[in-house]
Specification:
By secondary structure, this protein is of the alpha+beta class. It is built from 6 helices and 6 strands; from the N terminus they run ααβββαβααββα. The chain has 2 domains: 33 residues, no CATH class; 153 residues, 3-Layer(aba) Sandwich (Glutaredoxin). The strands form 2 sheets. It has a 4-stranded mixed beta sheet with strand order 4-3-5-6, covered by helices on one side. The longest helix is centred in the N-terminal third of the chain and has 17 residues.
Length: 190
């Protein structure tokens, strides 16, 4: 009974935040939720439910096609090629929040990511990652790690097998940075 109540309270908090409601205590309840509670839509409109990747590490990166960091797509693809068979999911989340650097739609995003950089890891539809209109995952992440929120494109969250944020890397940390590689390998080994 206690577990059911706890699950209900966490779900209620998540739904309140997802709906943008300002309910006292919702932030506290959201901290009990894991990343596995969230879903994105792919560029093709399919659901990407993070719960489907429970037990596997996930690297979530807000991306943009016209950014100075856009060449990081190539490094992210290298990580995907190297670690996907060991269970790593990389999820690119296009956003126009920083500098208006993702102004295009699905066709333009695919052209940059897939045609120019050979990306084969999943990409979501374009979403908001900051502010009150942020995607529910990013609102949750902001509550979990308030000092580690995205400040620009190509911010990276490493989600552990348990659905908790294990590490956060700012835009300037390249996909081949030894700190990021060490954090990934630690999660893959556990």
């Amino acid at each position: 009974m206690r577990l059911q109540r706890r699950s209900f309270v966490a779900l209620a908090g998540m739904l309140a935040i997802s709906a943008g409601l300002d309910i006292a205590g919702a932030e506290t309840n959201m901290s009990r939720v894991s990343a596995h509670a969230f879903a994105f839509k792919s560029l093709d409109g399919q659901d990407i439910r993070l719960a489907a990747y429970a037990g596997k590490p996930i690297l979530i990166v807000n991306t943009a096609s016209l950014c100075g960091y856009t060449p990081q797509y190539a490094g992210l693809q290298e990580l995907w090629t190297r670690y996907s068979e060991r269970g790593l999911l990389i999820l690119g989340v296009p956003s126009n929040d920083f500098g208006g650097q993702e102004p295009g739609g699905t066709t333009e995003i695919k052209h940059t990511a897939q045609d120019q950089y050979g990306v084969s890891f999943p990409l979501t539809e374009k979403v908001t990652v900051k502010g009150s209109a942020a995607h529910p995952f990013y609102r949750w992440a902001g509550l979990e790690r308030p000092t580690d929120t995205p400040r620009w494109n190509f911010h990276k969250y490493l989600i552990g097998r348990d659905g908790r944020i294990k590490a956060s890397f700012p835009s300037a940390v390249a996909p081949n940075d030894p700190r990021l590689i060490a954090a990934l390998e630690k999660e893959l080994a556990e």
